Amino acid sequence: MAQPQADAAEADKPALGVGMVGYAFMGAAHSQGWRTVGRVFDLPRRPVLAAICGRDPGAVRAAADRHGWAAAETDWRALLERDDVDLVDICTPGDSHAEIALAALAAGKHVLCEKPLANTVEEAEAMTAAAEEAARRGQLAMVGFNYRRLPATALARSMVAEGRLGTLRHVRVTYLQDWLVDPEFPLTWRLRKEAAGSGALGDLGAHIVDLAQYLAGEPLAGVSALTETFVRERPLPGGPTSGLTATATAGAGQVTVDDAAVFTGRFTSGALASFEATRYATGRKNALRIELNGERGSLAFDLERLNELAYHDGTEPGTHAGFRRILVTEPDHPYLDAWWPPGHGLGYEHSFVHQARDLVLAIAQGSRPRPSFADGLQVQRVLAAVEESAEKNSAYTPIAVSSISV
Amino acid sequence: MAQPQADAAEADKPALGVGMVGYAFMGAAHSQGWRTVGRVFDLPRRPVLAAICGRDPGAVRAAADRHGWAAAETDWRALLERDDVDLVDICTPGDSHAEIALAALAAGKHVLCEKPLANTVEEAEAMTAAAEEAARRGQLAMVGFNYRRLPATALARSMVAEGRLGTLRHVRVTYLQDWLVDPEFPLTWRLRKEAAGSGALGDLGAHIVDLAQYLAGEPLAGVSALTETFVRERPLPGGPTSGLTATATAGAGQVTVDDAAVFTGRFTSGALASFEATRYATGRKNALRIELNGERGSLAFDLERLNELAYHDGTEPGTHAGFRRILVTEPDHPYLDAWWPPGHGLGYEHSFVHQARDLVLAIAQGSRPRPSFADGLQVQRVLAAVEESAEKNSAYTPIAVSSISV
Amino acid sequence: MAQPQADAAEADKPALGVGMVGYAFMGAAHSQGWRTVGRVFDLPRRPVLAAICGRDPGAVRAAADRHGWAAAETDWRALLERDDVDLVDICTPGDSHAEIALAALAAGKHVLCEKPLANTVEEAEAMTAAAEEAARRGQLAMVGFNYRRLPATALARSMVAEGRLGTLRHVRVTYLQDWLVDPEFPLTWRLRKEAAGSGALGDLGAHIVDLAQYLAGEPLAGVSALTETFVRERPLPGGPTSGLTATATAGAGQVTVDDAAVFTGRFTSGALASFEATRYATGRKNALRIELNGERGSLAFDLERLNELAYHDGTEPGTHAGFRRILVTEPDHPYLDAWWPPGHGLGYEHSFVHQARDLVLAIAQGSRPRPSFADGLQVQRVLAAVEESAEKNSAYTPIAVSSISV
Amino acid sequence: MAQPQADAAEADKPALGVGMVGYAFMGAAHSQGWRTVGRVFDLPRRPVLAAICGRDPGAVRAAADRHGWAAAETDWRALLERDDVDLVDICTPGDSHAEIALAALAAGKHVLCEKPLANTVEEAEAMTAAAEEAARRGQLAMVGFNYRRLPATALARSMVAEGRLGTLRHVRVTYLQDWLVDPEFPLTWRLRKEAAGSGALGDLGAHIVDLAQYLAGEPLAGVSALTETFVRERPLPGGPTSGLTATATAGAGQVTVDDAAVFTGRFTSGALASFEATRYATGRKNALRIELNGERGSLAFDLERLNELAYHDGTEPGTHAGFRRILVTEPDHPYLDAWWPPGHGLGYEHSFVHQARDLVLAIAQGSRPRPSFADGLQVQRVLAAVEESAEKNSAYTPIAVSSISV
């Protein structure tokens, strides 16, 4: 663990008050990130868990207690009015992202918004415009594509940026889960279009579209897609949900989102891409797998083994070449100087610690954090093109080209 | 190694004379199959390597010598007239398959034809019709999708047939090679449309389309595709080629086939599929990977580890469930009773030994061998739909549904 | 993340004051555990990071600040006198364990002591006797074999306890690191017998001996050993050390501990064991690997992939049997109900969170925590037998049989 | 497949008549080697399967028929008198190796003898002396450690010889099978000391001792060992055996060999070694695994994935370093120019083809084939030291140092 810089005692650092909206799965993960980041990284500002917000007074109070937030609010508008909140962290379902984020920026706060940025391109455009305007005032906005923040993916990005892959030829990505295989799994909010926007596409597809563009360092130019809803009616949920688990009750309702999406595409450089997002891949629990093949080398990553990156150096003599398994736990790997000795791996939640670190650093330095709302908008445009293509007989659907920040 | 049945001395078995056309990579592989099959399996007929055919008299003589063929011919029509040839094994490039196969069937021979069955659907239809007619006369025809003949893929098929996957949800398949990454690799016949029909699509795509339909036990209903030629001009080849290697010479020519194809599709049951065939996946040498996810279980296979099959039993309690690595080398695994003790793996070429075994058994029993020419035609239709979709802006392109034999 | 029980607000829970001695690698890891445990698990007592102790006033103050400890002490005897300290957590090198632990127990504190329990069997015996006496007064003691606390190892233990392996035949264990391969790595305290007791043997070997006995559920009966010091002189260290890294300075000194130890042994049941501990396994960063083979099944674990457990069910038909990769991230896996959805893996440090959880629960319930000081003593006896055997020409050296707690 | 050299038609090459004694598992494997080698490799002499020998007239006749041997003999002395036999290939159990090999050398034949070379050091010494004398007359002798002949192990040897590992620190080797886990498996000859010499030690241990010394490029200097017989009584066998399988019948007998052996040792350079040979590792079918760690790099191999070699280059910057998986199927890998394109793997039996190739080349060139009988003797001495150590309370037992040929 890196030693603190002698010149900055923790108590002397200016506080950065965080207010979080939502306290389910993402709320717990973000809380762990905010609680831990200042204990591990030596940051110029000291994150303070100022207040958490949720509609149910008892539940939000318990969540504040559990996760270490100083105060609890039941109205997010009240949270925005608090002076001790400098940054609003939005962990709600996608249908409320735009409203809260726009209000938070209007209230002069920095914003961290969970992915997908919004449920529609229009919302995302409004949010991006507002973030752009706010940035001129010094308020910063970031979208929560946390998988950019793993040491292995960050290392992959730097290796691509160094030119180790050369001209890119192929990107293939899957995000496979299996928690909907059972047709009796209940109809939670993630299966309703009005709350979730889309299904596997928005939840898992948003992650892999962002990660693919981030690692490739270029945006997608167009896509051709098929989507499917395998199980169209499910029992209604009853009782508490936790993480991805839930309990069924009497009655049934319609699934109004996709269960799976498969799509192909082209990057602006001409590289071919294939994507698959599904919650029906029996036995695959969190298999976000991405492989990039370039003229000079290849990289491969699997979220189920998140401390590893596979790398093939195509410039080596074939006699001794092969995909090597880099254990991304060395002190000079991204984020690793603050953690444990080589081989002592990190977990999923560390991506949220790192996300918090990068955002705090950006705020302290006044630089634009990445991924930006514009990056979130670009992902939204890809998802919209996927849906459009799927509706139009899989016709190849171009995406308005924008730059992405990596 | 299984002992011979006491009642059938090899010498007493009726011979089955084989005549092979072509002696490059596939010719060598088929020769090894024919030479070995009667030494390992106890067959009702004794395969005899009667004659091999090629245009260059010296080269074909040397090949006969090397591979153990009793005679050499320089005109395939002469091969078809030989009385000691009962079965014609066609190992030439795809542009000559139809002509030779039709003539061989007309000459009263059984036929084994390398994949892809033909370079066009029309040729494949004619061949299938001829095979159908010949079958009524007792002449049998088989197409050489040898990857059905690996113990692991054959085991996978039987597990699907037993219902271990339940309703199929996803099939994802890649066939990744990298021998064209170098832009100086010369323009061999495999890169010219007139000889090869198509590029990665016909060569690699044909294998994975057949294998996917075989394992799924059902045909594809439609596809949406993107194809690409990354390097459009290459140096002309000079000197001998061997396997997939070749030497460049002065001058350059146009690549007239695809370098890579990515496509999605639907099986007739509604399962989603994704396919990728490429020769530009740096570091991937022969990565034919297929995974099937069903409501009750999943299977995964990788040709680079061909003695293994991964299986997830979705009906097990989650506490102890996981993808298991079945080492497909047990005596009760397909083809394995004739080979070595558990854990003593087989190689690529064994698929040709097994193909020969299955064809000899079918001929001896008078049953239709699988995969049939009709199966080859079905694959051809899928490939044609891929090309059509790629030309029509990736529009989803239905495939005339036919049955497949598994 | 599991919701808090409605009936126990955090603030209402009785505090459990923790005082920690040492703040290097282990101190940082334990701090993360103590900070996090009450936020993730619903515990009957609320751990409070009361005070941290170290000799350098500035450094210990900075560490308190960084890691979130309320107070800092420079004399561990002062720490023991604090009323707000209920539990003393000893994270110093092994040569001070006995003195501090004995004093802490005498002072009426609960004790958590890092492994190895002590540098000699005699110290460990005294500590075990004191712990036994203290337990009668309600003070509890635990030794920090944190690798028992990973979900995968805890699952393995429960599977062995269920009889899934049957009669045990083989246990093979390695703990491979490579941070001493470079002969210029400096002579830190871990390479000096007076501070560390032994080298790879006490550091890595202690872990694998405990883990092997824990998973097997039985003690070792005897061992035969070879040890080696490959590099006998190293530069003196200068400047700060962090984790396992350090900087060299002028001058050189003798390495007085082993660089590696290989030993074989017998468990009391008659199962054969092999062990290897080394810091010279180039490319292996933290490869604690253990495999157990029993008459009915086998288990295998690798710390470099700590979210996975491999299991072979030997009672299954061979046709479909194979080592399965259990992703130990399901809600019903040990410790996992408090964490993330399936497939969202944990890291190294979570073992310390779980260790803290189990210790707090034991204290709250008044039950003996495991592993006990007696377990630490048993490990010490094995290590002593290893050293004795290595000195006596590898002669098989029996170990006084004691019971172990699992 | 490499084309034949134009200047040497197969028919014009001088024949090399092979006479084989034994036709069980090893006989079948060697037959496949002899049948295939001249078809794949361009050799200066043409191997002819002249005669096979076994005691049961009907069975040996059937084996000749099946495996393609021109003649059958029932007395190995008669085989030695045949003029068409230049080389005697001994595939019998170890108790007859010495007698047959000595007689064959006396009869002026070249000799290939299966491993272990003999059942005792004394026999092996006599054989080595006879081989040395015969070599002066131009008769050559080789012992069948076929695992030196896999492309991956041969590549590993060349990488060690190039200095890629630097000073060797560790060698760890296991050979794990599980076909004796079932206590009802019958008492075949492999479980009787008088026929097999020893159990897992001589069968599996001989392989790993030879392979370890071959890859390390140096002999073992001493060992410390434990051996065990877990199941001491087994049913008598009845009916035919095949490969490693057999059928039980009424009655029972004593197992007089070891079931498993674990031993540690030192190489002459000071590197530490650990070995384990067992037939009780449930779920491990043929897990011959070897890893070598040197100051500059590491290599790892697993026979269950025999087309792969893992290599860590310790001289690379840690940022991008990792164990790489070399797919040993490139044309410039050992033996591979004669086989298939990259990624098209070989199997177990290819080791026998390669062994035949190397022996034919050595005979044609008049050079000493490797591994020599002296190498077989060195392995025998290690096995004897293992047995001696196991009897003497695991005392470290030195081995008379001899050179080995690699």
UniProtKB/TrEMBL annotation, chains A, B, C, D:
* Organism of provenance: Streptomyces lacrimifluminis
Give the protein's recorded name: Oxidoreductase
Gfo/Idh/MocA-like oxidoreductase N-terminal domain ranges (all copies): 17-137
GO MF annotations for this entry? nucleotide binding; oxidoreductase activity
Task: Identify the residues that the record assigns to the GFO/IDH/MocA-like oxidoreductase domain, covering every copy.
Answer: 155-299
Query: Gene3D superfamilies given for it?
Result: Dihydrodipicolinate Reductase, domain 2 (3.30.360.10), NAD(P)-binding Rossmann-like Domain (3.40.50.720)
Q: Which UniProt keywords apply?
A: Oxidoreductase
Q: Which domain of life is it from?
A: Bacteria
Q: Which SUPFAM superfamilies match?
A: Glyceraldehyde-3-phosphate dehydrogenase-like, C-terminal domain (SSF55347), NAD(P)-binding Rossmann-fold domains (SSF51735)
Record InterPro entries: Gfo/Idh/MocA-like_OxRdtase_N, Gfo/Idh/MocA_oxidrdct_glycsds, GFO_IDH_MocA-like_dom, NAD(P)-bd_dom_sf
